[in-house]
Amino acid sequence: MGTALNDRFGRTATDLRLSLTDRCDLRCTYCMPAEGLPWLPRPELLTDDELVRLVDIAVGRLGVREVRLTGGEPLIRQGIVGIVARLAALRPRPTLSVTTNATALERLAAPLAEAGLDRVNVSLDSLDPLTFKTLTRRDKHARVLAGIEAAARAGMRPVKINSVLMRGVNDHEAPALLRWCLERGYELRFIEQMPIDAQHGWDRAQMVTAQEILDRLAAEFRLEPEGEAVRGAAPAETWLVDGGPGAPGGGRVGVIASVTRPFCAACDRTRLTADGQVRTCLFAREETDLRGLLRGGADDETIAQAWRTAMLGKKAAAGIGEPGFVQPQRSMSAIGG
Question: Looking at residue 12, which CATH number applies to its domain?
Answer without folding.
Answer: 3.20.20.70
